[in-house]
Amino acid sequence: MTGFAVAGLASLAMCSALVSCTRAAPEATPEGAIRLFVEKMESGAEDPRAMREAYNLLGPRARANLKERAARASKGQGQRYEPYEMLAEGRFGLKFRPKSMTSRIEGDDAFVDVRGDGQAELASVRCLREATGWRVEPELPDIKASPRRPDGGT
User: Fold this and answer.
1) Does residue 105 sit in helix, strand or coil?
2) What is the pLDDT of residues 43-82, one digit of tens each?
3) Could you tell me if 33 and 27 are in contact, meaning their C-beta atoms sit under 8 angstroms apart?
4) How do the domains of the chain map onto residue ranges?
5) Quick one: fold of 26-137?
């Protein structure tokens, strides 16, 4: 084998080793996206960036819901609110501490069963695959139309 061939093989082996050592982003899996979302929500009271980061981990339906809530709050309060500000900063609480997660992936949808201690501690969370990774689609209450006053005002 020539010196160039040996050097080429050594370079190829080194590149392969570097690629295999690269860690995937947490949101590369549905379970990772949920873990990261929970982490960001729990640290939101201490870290002002965490709520923005949590918002960015949400799927399109949840983001649209929070955008509408922010628009309504801005109109009603006379000041501008950002959609991430509609997340309950520092008030997010888990009903249980996740111990394990298993997902069922169907195309670009995933359904993650989150388990805690005991049979009563079970939640199912939907995730959606986007180009940048998995996004969490929590069950958010629908936004109801504002009631109208008889005189036509709101």
Assistant:
1) strand
2) 887 887 999 999 999 999 999 999 999 999 999 888 999 9
3) yes
4) 26-137
5) Nuclear Transport Factor 2; Chain: A, (3.10.450)
**C-alpha–C-alpha distance, residues 138 and 64, integer Å:** 12
User: Reading across the β-sheet that carries 122-130, which strands appear in turn?
Assistant: 100-106, 109-115, 122-130, 133-137
Q: What angle do CA 40, 89, 35 make, to 5 degrees?
A: 20
Q: The whole model's pTM is what?
A: 0.74
Tokens of 11: 């370079």
24-49: pLDDT as tens digits: 788 899 999 999 999 998 888 788 79
What is residue 113's three-state secondary structure? strand
Residues shown for the chain: 154
